[in-house]
Amino acid sequence: MSDIYKTITTTFKGIYKEKGSKFLSFAIPVSTVEEVKEFVKNHRKDYYDARHVCYAYMLGADRNDFRTNDDGEPGGTAGRPILGQINSRELTNVLVIVVRYFGGVLLGTGGLTTAYKEAAADALNLAAIIEKTVDVIITIHFDYVQTNEVMHIIKDSNARIIEQSFENLCVIQLSIPKQNENQFTSKLNKIMGLVIKMEQI
Length: 201
Description:
The chain is α+β, with helices and mostly antiparallel strands. 30% of the residues lie in helices and 38% in strands. It contains five helices and eleven strands, in the order E-E-E-H-E-E-H-E-H-E-E-H-E-E-H-E. The strands form three sheets. A five-stranded antiparallel sheet has the order 2-3-6-4-5, sandwiched between helices. Strands 9-10-8-11 form a four-stranded antiparallel sheet, covered by helices on one side. Strands 1-7 form a two-stranded antiparallel ribbon. Strand 9 and strand 10 form a beta hairpin.
């Protein structure tokens, strides 16, 4: 699995028009299926008068959690071309929703595929794409007398402290890029009695 992935910074909107039909597109950063479901539900509520609300999403740094939805359009004419635009940019943790207002003229399967592809492309072309690291959450338990030693290691790493508590038994929770994890924990493991707990995000 790659330690770096590409995603988008915030929601971007696009539009495509063809033979009276209007396709509104929304590229949205997401990190869970629950978020996807919430955004889709809200867009169906906000655009209740639209004929179709189709979408595709890709999740995870390894890009193997994805789904498409044609919402009543002929199979493969909506969700698949939307996903194709996500894939062509090698993006993940992104949801693209395309809302269709029917213009009275049937576009045919080829026309629909092009329309959904172009609508998705318009939103993604406007999107600000960034690279993010796969991070690991590390919780460190140590004695107060070891504080200086622990803080020195943290200061020399590319870590971001999330929470910290300094009492007789100290606890620091931090986030660190996965690519730096082994070097960081090997330094910490040289401190006697220190306990490390990890989870990937």
